[in-house]
Amino acid sequence: MRRQKQWPLRPLLAYSFCSSAAERVSNSTAAAATVAFPLKHVTRSNFEKTLNDLRALVKAADFVAIDLEMTGVTSAPWRDSLEFDRYDVRYLKVKDSAEKFAVVQFGVCPFRWDARTQSFVSHPQNFFVFPRQELTFDPPAHEFLCQTTSMDFLAKYQFDFNTCIHEGISYLSRRQEEEASKRLETLYREEGIDSSGETEDLKLVRLADVLFAERMKNMLNEWRTGLLNGGNVSSESPRISNESTRSTETVFHQMRPALSLKGFTSHQLRVINSVLGKHFGDLVYIHSNDKSSCSQDFVVYTESESDKENLMKEAKDERKRVGERKIQSAIGFRQVIDLLASEKKLIVGHNCFLDIAHVYSKFVGPLPSTAEKFVASINSHFPYIVDTKILLNVNPMLHQRMKKSSTSLSSAFSSLCPQIEFSSRSSDSHLQQRVKIDVEVDNFRCSNWNAGGKHEAGYDAFMTGCIFAQACNHLGFDFTQHSQSDNLAHNEKLEKYINRLYLSWTRGDIIDLRTGHSNADNWRVSKFKYENIVLIWNFPRKLKAREIKECICKAFGSVSVISVYHIDDSAVFLLFKNSELVWDFLKLKRQLESSDGPVSVLHPLSKILEGGNTGAADYEAYKEICSSHISEILFSDQAETVGVKSRTRPDPQDETDRREESTVAVTHKSSDLIDAFLANRVEVETATTN
């Protein structure tokens, strides 16, 4: 899901025929048998079975399309993608979004070419996902933000929040699994923390505890005496008190006579354990889990010290095995991500850099601090990714076809897949040349459906895959000659598009996942240099961009300022003609603020500095502010909270490092196709949708 996604209001209509996997029906019968789009919904109740089926589908797939629905996109207005954002800042904003918002739906749609029917067979699946806390030894419960516009958008398209929260599939990232395993191992090793080995002398302060301990001592002594005197262990258990909430029962545990404890609080069980340690050398407290993971508490009689130690170790080992099973169970939906990563299939998304960042953050681990580190890591998990938005914007032929419409998901689907979206039984030769796509869910195969406008990640993934298939057809793929052994990811026609994603959801900067290089649209970047930019915040709100520019120009010359760009009402970017003016401005600002003489009052900059709270710094301070996990609504509040100070001159070492980093990270050596596209200044669509 992305901001302001728009959808056609008309229902999707059928165009061909419908059949099961085992049987075909006539076209006339199919025309009357239009069905709803066969999308498979997956929750906790059917996840395991679906996962088993999905393994075979992904293994046989030529490519897998994905799409995500999230609870929001931007945690503050200024965290939206802005014109003056450098590539590394854009990554930080995507990182912030992926870290703070939750994924609530995950669409997965494998596509397989069927040579017999000369069509792609798709298997759209819609997974409800929710970050539920499944482990008792987990860190604190997950937290995430909800953006009102995004939640309203989901509600508008009848998103089932109840199903998501109550039946959504939970998950652990690989990092969370590692941490949970380490935590379990620590609990296993530390004697005194596990409940069977806790024998410390518990100090009883409250009178109630003293009385309870005495009653338990008498009761346990009576029970033990009965056992040693040849009493029948199945006889009626001794009474503890008149309370009905607590009870004991004589049973066998691990072939040993034992007293089952029910209805006791954790504190009372600690008191019982303390009593055993002080007064009964051959009785031991055991906490265990049965096969259904229900906890049980026992006092067990042991025949010797070695028998006691063996029993405690057995119970301890069993608790560890139960914990390991719980961790494996809690992995949940991540098994789908592991499947996609292990099969190394071509992953297809639409404007999907934010989606991939979410996949990493939710299912791999914390996002790396820089785009370069992220690229190096994500490429090891998913070596082949295609963004259909890149295809549509960069390929000249596809771009020409899309020039009259936006490249949002819905618009691209309408333009490239009219035979699927509209009632197209037409004999038009242009439509006849399109790739045919069927849908199969639970052995029901269909080419004729009536999918309404309901918005779901599974259907988005299906549309993304359809767009990719048709785009490949336009690129000259001859699927009639396609065999199961062919790997689309290695096809030379796709080489220029593999692993190139838009770094932002609203700008045309392209990042190469193979190298980490950012191929920015050169004609726009050449308008300014980041070292020529000053960040100003907390100036009087009444000042507009034009007035700020006038004040600066009076002090430094009429051509000193190229432009002023509002970040929000409390901050602006100021683009100077050269970098020397940046440091002259910051130095002059500090001098004026340190003096209260008449020159300061009458100076042209006094309007900007009025109030004494105005802050200013270079572009690197903006990056520092964006890298913070904090997100205040106003940028000025963010700057103050982060603690960025005004700077009057650059640090020579920082300047050298920055130039070296820029040389390594940013390259203008893109593919011939992309260079030609940018050189001709073909307008890259600024995506405000999808």
Automatic annotation (TrEMBL):
Under the heading InterPro entries, the entry gives: CAF1_poly(A)_ribonucleases, RNase_CAF1, RNaseH-like_sf, RNaseH_sf
Q: Where is the segment annotated Disordered?
A: 642-666
The protein's superkingdom reads Eukaryota
Compositionally biased spans, kind Basic and acidic residues: 648-662
Record's Gene3D superfamilies? Ribonuclease H-like superfamily/Ribonuclease H
Name any cofactors this protein relies on.
a divalent metal cation
In which family does this protein belong, per the annotation?
Belongs to the CAF1 family.
The entry's protein name is: Poly(A)-specific ribonuclease PARN-like
Q: Which gene encodes it?
A: LOC104743027
